[in-house]
Amino acid sequence: MQSGTSYQNATLLRFCQGQSCRQGSGKLPRALAAADPLLFIIDAIPQTANVTLTKAGAATPAETRALHAGSIMVYAPTVSAGTYLVQLNATWPGSTGSWQFTVSIPKS
Fold first, then answer.
1. Looking at the domain covering 2-105, what would its CATH class be?
2. SS3 88
3. Longest CA–CA separation in the chain, Å
4. What is the pLDDT of residue 88?
């Protein structure tokens, strides 16, 4: 994921190919300052993709949005300032994947 000139690698939550699945470590990366739209950069273009933002400590998502699937997917959060968990979900023929990032949205 990229915001402005800063990058952050994802934490794999889960990747399934057919019946075979693998779990990620669940270790969250440091929060990336996200004053600009978020760019998700992915090698294989998915059929579908969506992103969910959940404020740190909240039980329900603050925002969920479908993305235009591509090798670079743009998302401009419309949430209030704070630290959020960002979950990217993508599907391919016979495969699904979920990754997590942490972002800090500044006050505007």
1. mainly beta
2. strand
3. 45
4. 96
